[in-house]
């Protein structure tokens, strides 16, 4: 077992971030008045790559995530997200852990979607549509099953082989999973959906069910998009659009390209603090996730807790 003050690999990082406790830690962080999270620094690099520096702290724990996003690595043996999360003890200033950055990003992103669904989804019964069969596709299947009890999934991907591999993974977890060719057609049967793609093109256009919850996680810059502009406007007009943090005001490509006033939309923190869970008759919900260092801080807080 790795000791504190060590560099953890992907496997040991994941072991310190089990799904259900991670979702609970994310929710707990939103109620912690000591949390400080400044805007993240985003440095554009060559060929569409970015360097992200994301610090945050509470009264006991501080962390900084430093990662690169390299879209040119998609489809290669190199991951698109690389880097580390360094965790410190506030009282002593001591470095406690260095976590694997892509693992933290992958797990906290999916766990945020699950937390949003806990508060916002009108219907958690499933099936759940997963669009995209990469890291986030796998993570969303796992967390929605582990933390919310979803048992049935529909998988859509540009590559049939990738969709089949994710469906096989879900079945190995004891879940029901089927590959679908048309994500728009499948949306009619799925009250839950998550778009987990590289966000280079629109992947959902169809109008959803009245009890739908859609988590859009792929687009985190103004030029990226997964959800059709017309669909975004429909969801804003007939239901509810919630963003993961105030940073989405200048990062939520789907919403910005739809011409919506993102700054006026409630954040997940607003929802949780107001204790305003979605009503079953409240219409469809779009949750737009762009990423926030607070989510990484929650993961860091969980990672330094004693395991047992």
TrEMBL record:
Organism: Ottowia testudinis
Pfam families: OCD_Mu_crystall (PF02423)
PANTHER family with a match to the protein in the record: KETIMINE REDUCTASE MU-CRYSTALLIN
SUPFAM superfamilies assigned to the protein according to its UniProt record, in alphabetical order: NAD(P)-binding Rossmann-fold domains
Alphabetized InterPro entries for the sequence: NAD(P)-bd_dom_sf, ODC_Mu_crystall, ODC_N
Superkingdom in the source lineage: Bacteria
Protein name: Delta(1)-pyrroline-2-carboxylate reductase family protein
GO cellular component: cytoplasm
């Amino acid at each position: 077992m790795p000791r504190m003050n060590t560099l953890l690999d992907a496997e040991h990082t994941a072991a310190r971030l089990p799904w259900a406790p991670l979702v609970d830690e994310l929710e707990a962080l939103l109620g912690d008045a000591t949390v400080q999270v400044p805007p993240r620094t985003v440095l554009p690099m060559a060929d569409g790559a970015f360097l992200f520096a994301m610090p945050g702290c509470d009264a006991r724990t501080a962390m900084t995530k430093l990662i690169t996003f390299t879209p040119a690595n998609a489809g290669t043996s190199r991951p698109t997200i690389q880097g580390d999360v360094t965790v410190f003890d506030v009282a002593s200033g001591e470095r406690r852990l260095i976590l694997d950055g892509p693992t933290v990003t992958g797990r906290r992103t999916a766990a945020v979607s699950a937390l949003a669904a806990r508060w916002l989804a009108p219907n958690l019964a499933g099936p759940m549509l997963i669009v995209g069969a990469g890291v986030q596709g796998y993570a969303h299947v796992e967390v929605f099953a582990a933390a919310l009890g979803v048992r049935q999934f529909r998988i859509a991907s540009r590559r049939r082989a990738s969709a089949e591999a994710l469906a096989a993974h879900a079945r190995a977890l004891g879940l029901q999973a089927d590959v679908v060719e048309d994500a728009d057609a499948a949306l009619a049967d799925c009250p839950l959906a998550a778009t987990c793609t590289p966000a280079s093109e629109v992947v959902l256009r169809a109008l959803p069910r009245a009890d739908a919850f859609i988590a859009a996680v792929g687009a985190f810059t103004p030029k990226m998009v997964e959800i059709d502009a017309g669909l975004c406007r429909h969801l804003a007009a007939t239901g509810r659009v919630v963003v993961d943090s105030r940073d989405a005001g200048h990062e939520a490509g789907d919403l910005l390209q739809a011409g919506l006033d993102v700054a006026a939309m409630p954040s997940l923190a607003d929802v949780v603090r107001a204790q305003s869970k979605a009503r079953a008759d409240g219409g469809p919900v779009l949750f737009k996730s762009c990423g926030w260092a607070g989510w990484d801080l929650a993961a860091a807080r969980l990672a330094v807790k004693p395991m047992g």
